[in-house]
Fold these 4 entries.
Entry 1:
Amino acid sequence: MTSMQTVFLIFLFILQVIGFYFMALLYMKVSKFNNLEKKQQKLMAEMDDAIGAYLSELKEENERLINIIDKRQEEDNAKGKTVESNHRSELEQPSERNAFSINTPSYPVKAAMKSYQTAPSLNKSNVSKPEFNKPVMDSRTRAIQMYDEGKPIEEIAKKLGKGKTEVELLLKFR
């Protein structure tokens, strides 16, 4: 019986050593996991700071853009008082002046109106009556037609007022 007890004690001792070994392994895994979690929290804090800095820069940039647009609107309002009064007199009918008021257009509309007024094709002396029998071709169709006629790309680009690369792309994607 004593030999059986010694075998049993040795077996229990080996089981305890194995148990301690597994506990040590688990402890190392948990500590690695905790370190990894701390690193991830640190990275998340750094990313939050970076995103916050980016958003604040973006906000400042937007505020600068809004200030520039406001300044341009004020300049256009100061310059455009006479132009606006001319437009209002053309648009308003004498019988409808008291019925409603016309709101001033926003900045992009004003800029578009100014560019349309200065465009040479919109002057009344240059405007011709549209020909309904003649089909209107866009630059892509005209480029393809000229290329099919055998004209070089440089000549097509000059006639259409486009770059050589742009004409090449138009012809490539037909």
Entry 2:
Amino acid sequence: MAVLPIRQVPDPILRQKSKQVRSLNGSIHKLISDMLETMHAAPGVGLAAPQVGVLLRVIVLGIPEQPDIVLINPKIVRKSGERLVNEGCLSLPGYIGQVKRAVSVTVKGRDQNGSEIRIKADELLAQALEHEINHINGILYFDELVGMDKPRKIEPEESRL
């Protein structure tokens, strides 16, 4: 396992749409291990493969007091409700902004063993899922800021996604 460098804005890879993972092999498993280690070292609650320079549809999540989640080829299949949240990003450290996120989401994908999984989530997990799935689609949180808001400078410990 290795801590990988996190790509930061304005790196063009962050704006590209990621490709489907076609088969699980040793390189995908190594990527997942490295992403988990990188996310925890950052520290963050989520990381998408493009943030470490890999254009594949892989995300990892590390919500406090919950087991880590690995999703391959994740897709949001249902959203409900709407709420305003302050959000940051490991690819734009030191800033947060207010965005609209769903109250709850349902996501389907595959786990690191290739098994199909479906996750129904709310609160921070729902927010992190939307945020990271946006990353693999080339969308960054500040693209969705409420109104004419701009990301505001913060202390490093406030930025967690």
Entry 3:
Amino acid sequence: MSWEDAWREGRTRWDAGGPAPALVEALRDEFLPSGNALVTGCGSGYDVFALAESGRSTTGLDMAPTAAKRFEQLRRERGIQPAMARVALADFFTWNPGRRFDVVWDYTFCCALPPSQRHRWGYRMSELVAPEGRLATLVFPMAPDAPRDQGPPFPLFPEDVAAALPGWTVAEERTPTTSHPGREGMERLILWRPPT
């Protein structure tokens, strides 16, 4: 099954219908850096719209055409200008945006990749995050009893993300106080600083 098949057939249980509560909280608390932003695996675009409405020019990246169509429909309904929220239809591993980003938001994207691909994910982040930028990972699902080789989503923990980001350091981290229903206690928000 491809991601496009899932979107076309409506099998998108990961689509929670709104932005990650932890992102809303982080924006309210000014936890994330300003500047241009990227959301990996953006789907319908809820997190993109939250970042755009906070004043960040934001690009969402997804490889499913049906998700991109849904994104554009919701952007128009919200009255958000394309200059503030746009979607790029491309493969994360081969996409060339032509620039780096001040903040990259990753939630339910890294955990959708097989664990064997996490090192490639980390390498791509080193190409996408600006030297003074930050990678914001909402680490999920921290499910200690789940089989590590079954997914998506594959269980993901802060140490897994750290292993995929050699040379990166933690700038800040926090445990969200709010989550989508059913995800409580399974998330950790970490801001990563790229190697100098």
Entry 4:
Amino acid sequence: MERRRFVPTMGKAWIKARKHDRFYRAAKKQDYRSRAAIKLSQIDLRYGVFHEGDLVVDLGAVPGGWSQIARERIGAKGRVVAVDLARMAPIEGVEVLRGDFTRSEVQATLFEAIRRPADIVMSDMAPKLSGNRTLDVARTLDLADHALSFAVRALRPGGTFLAKVFQGDDYPGFLRRVADRFDGVKGVKPTASSSTSAEIYVLAMGRR
């Protein structure tokens, strides 16, 4: 059986194809910073992730598409706190921290910034793809495990966790680890996610 490979996403052909993608065009038309914003919007519309007044933590937020969606959905009384190792251009109403959230000192700063348990912790992080499926899946799940560990400590009881992963050998194991901490867990693939991509979003509601 042929093994599916991750294809590096920096070639001219990929850039040309992306510009003809209807979800990419929809994101640009609505002034979202990434196509991923459409994916999060679809997940929210289907599952009701965001509520007015929520405190949202966006891990690995650059370029900011997910933060934009969260900011829109939670209203003026809500807060979005975003963190990334790379510099992110400001977004009105979004508090941005710069640093590697997997480091304990950055997490300490993040806890000081949010000041209370969060309602939602979300992560759209992925490593730079190498083209080696096994390695890329492992790296993505490692990031997701770091996000899960943070979410368990940062979320209020009943809070929500959302993270992107790639389906692979340890994907079922990651689902079990999430299920140990939340009442409901499911893998979600929004329409805007390419059918040929191994990416899937793990949505967990009801932190115990």
